[in-house]
Amino acid sequence: MISDLLSSFGEMLTPVPFFFVFFGTLSGIIVGAIPGLSGGMLVAISLPLTYGWSPLNAIALLVGQYVGSMSGGLVSATLLNIPGSPSNIMTTLDATPMARNGRPERALQLGILASFVGGAVSWLALVFLSPPLAKLALTFGPHEYFSLVFVALMLISSLSDGSMIKALMASVLGMLAAIPGIDQITAQLRLDFGFQQMAAGFDVMAVLLGIFAITQLLYDAGNGIKASERLALSAKMSFVPFRDLTRQAGNLIRSSGIGTFVGILPGVGGSIGSIASYAMAKNLSKTPEKFGTGIDDGVIASEAANNATVGGALIPLVTMGIPGSVIDVILIAALTLHNIRPGPLLFQNEPDIVYAFMSTMMIGNVLMLLLMLFGIRWLARLIDVSPKYLIPVLLLLCAVGAFAVNNRVFDILVMFGFGLVGLVFRKFRIPAAPFVIGFILTPVAESNFRSALIVSEGHLSEFLTRPISGILLFLSILVLCMPLLRGRGFGRRFGLRTSRT
Amino acid sequence: MADITKERLFLLACLVISALVYWSADQIPASLMDKFGAGLVPKILAVALAILSTLQFISGYLFRKKKAGTTQGVPPAGSDGSLGFYVRIAVVMLVFAAFIFVLDLEIVPFWVSGFVFVFIETFILAAKNLRGVIEATATAAISVGVIVVVLTQVFTVILP
To answer: Which residues does residue A190 pair with via DSSP β-bridges, in sequence order?
Structure first.
């Protein structure tokens, strides 16, 4: 395994793949730093452009963007008090006060270093946990696989903001959106409602671009163009003393561990990781009253955790084909676009792809550290770019991206339609993450569910009597009951209550 | 329109969707797979959506009954509820829809329709004066030029 990994590093460090990792990380940092834009949007827009590329170059670009975008949001969170992405919300609580107290460079550097450590810890988890998990996944039959997908959908629904029933409705709507087209088992046409273009169903790129990019761009356009007051950085360059970091070693490792674990949970992303880590750091601190006033612990806890979710989220993706976060949904679409089948056999059939994920993640992590530490002044200027220039150009790029895969204007219409769906979701406070995860997992879930029924001759009880499947379904019931447990102080006892003010 | 009414309309829409899906799945001819055929999962999902919509309606009704007379639980008004917000979105959407329509008709090259699209959208979002016109023109010219060259020559993407 180590020799395969080193070989992958050697390959990704050659000029062409390295250029794509570099460009991906840099563009991810820039987009992550600009309020109103997100890493998911960038990865979704970039994906169709990689259609003619080799899979390794595509992975280099997309994973680089993933890593960069998780860290880029730190810049606007610190200097504008606007989180660049949801995973940077907790960062604003301490980074902004620290910046306003005359220490913006310290806030940024602590965040960058914490991001690097978080990424490195989760990378180690990715490298050492993936092989045994992949072996375990190979023992899964259709019953186990369906139950795993079911748990993933329950988990993302229970952990989403707002009403759990609405989140479950979003999952079901996402699954319904994946049904139109030709049935993969019987090859019968279904839910086309007489439209010829619906024979191929809704293209996954069009749906993802609509939900991730169009919704956000329309929302930003509706909010109007507001000038943001950015805190200035001092002209003199200075670095955080090393002892200040070593003092935070426990916080760094714990937060990285929390982020990695949260990342492994299917469908859960950086925002939950940083909230859990911040809450834990505050609960365990000897001076919890100082959180929110601009202390090192708060910045480090949030940033280490949100970057740690990247590696954690890649673990279920490479071992089981289950997305660990919403951006991983797009990475699954990327594999499919390049004729690579995600799932338990990925490790066995395409090990070079798996190791490419691992090596790119670490290369991107190192590049993120260097680019942000030494390029922070130029990055700070980029967040001044007005959305009035970006929104129209990104809308145009989205149209090109939706068209690029199948060369059909119908896909641009689909993208537009799902952009409106995303706006409706926002209006009614329905989370979009369960929708996209339901959409991407439906083919897998349906084929395994029906295969399981065929194998067991229609006996649903086999889902419960098979040990792994039974345990997974029991877990899904526990997950459904989590909101009740949270209400009874369970969350407070285990340090999971947040203290957002 | 009150939030309650909007939510009920949404739930009603979900019930209509579930009915349509169930009906459409029922039309699928029986195959060798019989009860495990192509219509099974759509029917299950349609029933699940109908049940969840009903549960959401009931829980929403019980919640409002409990909190009647108070403002607890009512989300605060924000910029995303104002008329200006919806007007801006509607205008941007109309222009985007017109752009897609022109692409479908294939009456002008992509760079022309793209230029006009970016120009209009930028002008909508920018100041309505000469400076706004200049900004919109420059943004459209530079962005479309770069996109056409980079996407066709570097990424070898086929444009609409």
So the answer is: A181
Q: What is the DSSP string of chain B?
A: --HHHHHHHHHHHHHHHHHHHHHHHHTSPP-TTGGGSTTHHHHHHHHHHHHHHHHHHHHHHHHHHHTTTS-TTPPPP-GGGSHHHHHHHHHHHHHHHHHHHHHHHT-S-HHHHHHHHHHHHHHHHS-SSHHHHHHHHHHHHHHHHHHHHIIIIIS-PPP-
User: For chain A, how are helix, strand and coil distributed in percent, rounded to 5?
Assistant: 75, 0, 25
Mean pLDDT of B53-63: 83
Nearest chain A Cα to B78, which residue? A223
**Residues in chain B within 8 Å Cβ distance of A163:** 56, 59
In the block, which residue shows the tokens 């993208």?
A: A415
What is the predicted ipTM?
0.86
Comparing C-alpha atoms, which of A397, A414, A206, A217 is closest to residue B110? A397
Shortest alpha-carbon distance between residue A278 and chain B (Å)? 25
Cβ-Cβ contacts under 8 Å, B79 against chain A: 223-224
pLDDT of residue A75: 86
If we measure between CA atoms, which residue out of A171, A141, A139 comes closest to residue A155? A171
- SS3 of A354-369: HHHHHHHHHHHHHHHH
Residues of A in contact with B37 (CB under 8 A): 186, 188
Q: Is residue A499 classed as helix, strand or coil in its secondary structure?
A: coil
Q: What is the pLDDT of residue A29?
A: 92
CB A449 within 8 A of CB B41: yes
Size of interface A-B (CB pairs under 8 A): 173
Q: pLDDT value at position B64?
A: 64
Statement: residue B76 has pLDDT above 50 = no
Residue A226: what pLDDT?
Answer: 58
Higher pLDDT, B65 or A71: A71
Strand partners, A189: A182
Q: How far apart are CA A141 and CA A139, in angstroms?
A: 6
Enter the tokens of residue A452: 């399981």
CB B157 to CB A186 under 8 A?
no
Tokens of A375: 């390029």
Q: Where are the beta strands (DSSP E) in A289-357?
A: none
Contact B147 A426 (CB under 8 A): no
What's the pLDDT at B77? 42
Instruction: Return the residue of A nearest to B114 by Cα.
Output: A396
What are the mean pLDDT values of chain A's consecutive 10-residue runs (501 residues total)? 88 92 93 81 87 90 93 85 78 86 86 94 93 85 89 80 85 94 84 82 88 86 66 64 83 92 78 84 86 89 92 91 86 89 86 93 95 83 76 89 85 93 87 87 90 88 90 86 58 38 32
